[in-house]
Amino acid sequence: MKKFILTAIVAVASVAANAQIWVGGEAGYTTSKTTFDGNKVASENAVTVLPEVGYSLNENWDVALAIGFTHGDLSNASNVTSNANAFTFHPYVRYSYAKVGDLKFFLDGGFSYANTHWSGNDDNQNDWKIAINPGLAYSLSPKTTLVAHLGEVSYGFSKQGDLKKNSFNLGVDNAITFGVYFSL
After folding, report:
1. Domain boundaries, the chain
2. Could you report the per-residue pLDDT of 84-106, keeping only the tens digit for each?
3. CA 181, CA 148: separation in Å to the nearest integer?
4. What's the CA gap between 165 and 147, in Å, rounded?
5. How many other β-carbons are positioned within 10 Å of the β-carbon of residue 83?
6. Is the full-model pTM beyond 0.70?
7. Which residues does 85 contact at the CB level (< 8 Å), separation at least 6?
8. Exposed (0-12), middle (13-18) or buried (19+): which is 124, by Cβ within 10 Å?
9. Could you say which architecture CATH assigns to the domain 21-183?
């Protein structure tokens, strides 16, 4: 029994010695204003916080989980405002396919789920998405990395009450994000 416990401790210690765990994430602020003929039609503001934790399996593969929160408001020309709060769950796999000095090129592939509650509406909005996001990571130091995602290819499905929406996205229109990761 002692040999088994000692063997288990050595195995766990060797895995932990090679473990590469990282934490970080992204935060953002979005604002927009729509006018028609010089008059305000609508405005929108949103703040998003998306912390992540990941584990490097080897030089090319990582697995990660991002869990985030968004708060936003939308007002119309009559200054009627709706607030929204969204919770996001996003596990993904990262494949790093090229490295040039301290710069890595990667693809993130995964799915995400978001649940949004709009004030004044009894039905929450549920969004599901499968996506591939290309990006790059630049190592500032052995423990600090800057990350940028540059677009996405995705399929999404959204449902709120009886309203359903399917979408396909191929582009970089609103999918450019920046973040910082710290290796532990």
Report:
1. 21-183
2. 999 999 999 999 999 999 999 99
3. 11
4. 31
5. 13
6. yes
7. 69, 70, 71, 116, 117
8. middle
9. Beta Barrel (2.40)
